């Protein structure tokens, strides 16, 4: 099939190399069938060349006690001419450079860490540390679990990897592969010691075709799009969109009868797009007549899409967020190539519609892709002799991102002032790698937007703003106007380093949930019951009441910094990227005193009940009071708890894990 494709250019695409080449842990085989006689750890230098290992130390940590059980000083060794280095069992082939007795590498929960600093710092029985760390892999089996402390210390924000022995017949290993853009991940595959890892992209389901290869041509050079066969999807249309106008440049029916080896190629004849343009290729369920030439971008979600950005000419936020929500276009460089450029799907990410999974590679029509070995480094090296000081955490102990302010309903039909503001309690610049925002509709309890924040950072004061592209101040991540629905709906914040939260859990995902706000319009509070039950249990949705303030208003965090706590929010004036302007709190109640305190810390009796008893005038409303607990060992406040409710008829109010307490706390270990 030959079509004229006016929106695909002969442009050079940038393959990003992050800094100088580095040494990484590439593959681990810790659990062999039967006697564990072919265990190994493979290191790889991303230069792909021989490199000295002087100054590196490999340490094996036992997750039972979190101490080192094996330390290997790599001084005097080098990688081979292709950049590989093997440590492994004496019976292994190829023969490792450092030999280990059988059954040395433990099966998990454990960790293997590569350090680059003085080897004298490391010894067996040492405690786990991230000082001087270059790379680390934390792993476990489905039977064991228990690697949480190792993961929190060595790979914060990333769970331990599970070496699932049931994945393959025979043996398997944990192999590092590119996920998307400059993000690495792991997958289980057949062992490949001393060879490039078997990083095969996941097989596409029979109901969803995916783009596997692209050729961006120009001038007299033909191009093509290759996609997987998916008979269950019905008729398919390939649509090319102009990044400047968001309009259809070409649409063509995909001929399913041309499939070879489960792949379909659509040839592209003589592209004439200028080198500074941008655009997109999308696969839709339907026919070409549904997407006539010159028609605007359809709001129907494509089955797969690839969006690219010309130098100095990015596609619109509307095109990007509609076709590849939460992800970035593939960036084209200024360099033109007469023969066009070939891109192959190489990343092993399980989510769809992500240009970041494509890499420059040879064209392989109707054949498996020949993906290169990435030259990027998975971790930033910790400088020996000192590390960054940990962020200053607030006294209430919450150390993760929070939803700080929402403006979902702005005056006028344009709705071009909507935004979501996040805040990190450290109050400083923090990476948002692995963080996702999901926008839920209460009508079907499904996310209508999944937005990845990877690659972004908070401001120097800890704020991050995403919102309409006409919002002032300008958001770091722009959305088309009228994207954030008015309610009943929800906004939820997740830590999900391996892809969209919806891909790891059916229904309303709660795995990795960090904070959530469920909100409504007048008369719609009962329509969000399922969202409330899953995201903010036991609480009613918030109302962004337009009658409270003249002009615009927002839901602002004002009375606490605990996640999922809707009582912390008030209707207040919008303050994007500024400190919230909160309503004045009610006056503090008078006559309330601390009458009794008990703690197991004082008696060394673990059955001692811990509580604080207050005494005051009966039925006194306690709003406006905060119970603070100080601990000298923790250098300050360990609990700062805004009180709710009122003193009972006997003049008493109890906080603690005791029968009859007015406020039940999980912090009794601090009393």
Automatic annotation (TrEMBL):
Keywords: Signal
Signal in keyword set: yes
Signal peptide: 1-19
Domain of life: Eukaryota
Protein name in UniProt: LTD domain-containing protein
Lineage, opening ranks: Eukaryota, Metazoa, Chordata, Craniata, Vertebrata
Gene expressing this chain: LOC104946373
